[in-house]
Known about the structure:
The protein is of the alpha/beta class. The protein is built from 15 helices and eleven strands. It folds into two domains: 119-370, Aspartate Aminotransferase, domain 2 (3-Layer(aba) Sandwich); 380-499, Aspartate Aminotransferase, domain 1 (Alpha-Beta Complex). The strands form two sheets. A seven-stranded mixed β-sheet has the order 1-7-6-5-4-2-3, with helices on both faces. The protein is globular, with a radius of gyration of 25 Å.
Amino acid sequence: MNDITLPAIAVPSKEIFHENTAAEYNFAIDAAKELINTFLEKNRTPFSGITPGQLRQLFSQVDFDTPLADYKELFLEVERLYVNHATAFHLPNYIAHLNCPVVIPALAAEVLIAAINSSQDTWDQSAGGTLMEQKLISWTCNEIGFSTASDGVFTAGGSQSNLMGLLLARDYFSREKLGHNIRKHGLPESASRFRIFVSEMTHFSIQNTVSLMGLGERSLVKVKTDEGFRMRADSLEEAIEKELEQGNLPIAVIATAGTTDFGNIDPLGAIGKIAAKHSLWMHVDAAYGCGLLLSSKYRHRLNGITFANSVTTDYHKAFFQPISSSALLVKDKKYLDLITHHADYLNPQENIFEGLNQINKTITQSTRRFDALKLWCTLRLMGKQKLGACIDAIIDTTEQAADILEKDPDFELLTHSDISALVFRYHPAEVKDDIFSDKLNQYIKKEMFQEGKAIVAGTRVNDAFYLKFTLLNPLTTSNDIRNIIGIIKKHGAAFLQPQLSPAL
C-alpha cells in the first residue's frame, strides 16, 4: 500500500490565548459583547416560542469539519441557534424555576475566570484564588453562625453538596459508632440498616444520592409535613423511635431550608435538638434559603441552622451569581478528613502547602473552576446590605402576590411561602372536577410557554396539578404579578369557553 502524505497544518497561534494575541482576544470579546447587547435589546419576552422541531431544523446545516470564516459568521450562527431563543431569566415575567438574574460584577469576574483559567484543586495552580475561596467559605460559615473550626469548599451545585454532606454523615457514623472505615473497607454489613430521615418535600437529588452511596432508596425515611409542607418535628421523633424499635440504625436527618416547590423552611431548631438527642448528623439543604443569610429583615427564618453538621448553599440561586456557584459548609473542618485521598502528584503526604490544597475537601472534582471569584467581586463591590435588600424585595413581592391570589376567587393558593415560591391553581367556581382542573392548568402552562410573554412552572401536589410562581428577581413587582395573572386568566378562558359543559 502506498503511503498517503497529508498536507501539513500549521499549529494555530492566532486563536491561542497568550501575550501576542491580545488584539485577537479583544476583538472576540467585543463581538461577544455586541451579541449580549443584542440579546438584551431583542429578547423582550422570556421565550421566543420556538418549538423543538423548528429549532432542530436550524441545526441541519452545521458541519464541524468546515470552520466558519470569522467571528462575525460565528456569532451570527450562535445568535440564530441559541441567543434568539434563550430563556431570558432576567425579565420580570420569568417566574418559573430557581433561576435568578445575575449581577454585573460577577459577569465581569467570569471574563477573568475563563481567560486566566486557574484550577482550584491545588495551591500551585491557584495561589491567591485559594485564599479568596477560603476567605469566602469562612465568611459564609460565620454568617451561618459556625465557629472558626468550620470549613467548606465550593462545588458545582446543590446536588453535589448534598451528596458530600450525606457521604460525610455515613462515613462519620460508621467510624464513630461502628469503628469501621468505609473508605478502606467498603460498606459495613450493617449498612442495610442505615436510615436517613427526610421530609416528604426533600429535593430529588437525595434519592439519587443514597443510591450512589450504596444504601438504596429504602434507607430514606420520609417524615410527614404540616399544612405548610414543612417537616413535623413530632413526626420526626416518632419515625426515629419506630426505626430504632425495628433494629435499624438512624444516622442522619436532612432538613430543608427552602423547599423547591413551596420555598418553606423546616423547623431547624426543633429538628436540631432531636438530632442532638439521638446523636444524628444534621444536614441542612439551604440551596434555596441561603439568601436569607443576607437579610436583616428575614434572617431569623434560618434560626436553628447552627445545629447543622453540614450545610448546602447555592449562591447561583440566592446570591445572584452566574451558574455555577455553590458550596458545602461543615461545622468542623475535621469532618473533611473523611473524604481526603492522597495522590502524590496533587497532595503528597510531605506536602509543603498544608491546608492550602482544596482538593483535600472535595470528592468529585479535581480540576475545578475559580467560581469563588464571582462571589468575591459581588460582595466587594455591592456588599451584603445591598444584596440583602434584593432578597427582602423578593420576599415582600411574594407576599403581595400571595395576597393577590388569595383575594381572587378564581384561584386557589395552597400555602404562603417563607421565601418566594407560591403553588396555586386557576380554579374558577364553575370548574368542579379535579381531572378537568388538571387539564385546564396544564393547558395554561403549555400555552404560556409557547406564547413566551410570561413563564410559570407547574408541579403536582397530592396527585393534582398546580401552577407555580418562583420569584427570584428583585425587579419583579406586584404590577408584573397582576399582568401575569391576567395572562393566566386569558389562556384559562380560552380553554374553558369551548370545553366547559353543564355537567361540570
